[in-house]
Design goal:
This protein is mainly beta. The chain is built from no helices and eight strands. It has one domain: Elongation Factor Tu (Ef-tu), domain 3. It has a six-stranded antiparallel β-barrel with strand order 1-2-7-6-3-8. Strands 4-5 form a two-stranded antiparallel ribbon. The two termini are 31 Å apart. Keywords: S-adenosyl-L-methionine. Pfam families: TrmO_N.
Length: 136
């Protein structure tokens, strides 16, 4: 297997969430609006996005423990250990975050989205639209 893989961030999350302890586990558990600041080189890639669109934001959970392979789901030690691939834990070999959000504002290469549980400074590695039936 080839271990060489390079991912370049397309932007960064700007959020009032500053510490991991402040972030809800999922967006629908009280996460605030946040901004995605696109790298100026990638602003043209956002053409076609509009207020109200639902998108998937893929992030690199840069504060995750990449060596952790088993966790108690939701850090509940009364639950048995599971492999991280069977959980939504941020701690995993490749800590890619997947966030379904709605665009609430677009301005100057920035997307305000809601709700987003990623902390301030989290690298954004991709943005993808949510497609309905028959869309491509």
């Amino acid at each position: 297997m080839n271990d060489d893989l390079t991912i370049h961030p397309v932007g960064i999350v700007r959020s009032g969430l500053r510490a991991l302890a402040d972030a809800p586990r999922q967006g629908d558990e009280g996460a605030p609006d946040a901004w995605i600041e696109l790298d100026p080189r990638f602003v043209p890639a956002s053409e076609g996005l509009a207020i109200g669109h639902e998108i998937l934001v893929l992030t690199w959970l840069h504060r995750a423990d990449r060596a952790l392979l088993r966790v108690h789901p939701r850090d509940d030690t009364s639950r048995p250990l599971h492999g991280v691939f069977a959980t939504r834990s941020a701690d995993r070999p490749n800590p890619i975050g997947l966030h379904r959000v709605r665009i609430v504002e677009i301005t100057n290469g920035r997307l305000r989205v809601a709700p987003l549980e990623a902390i301030d400074g989290t690298p954004v590695i991709d943005v993808k639209p949510i497609l309905g039936p028959g869309e491509r």
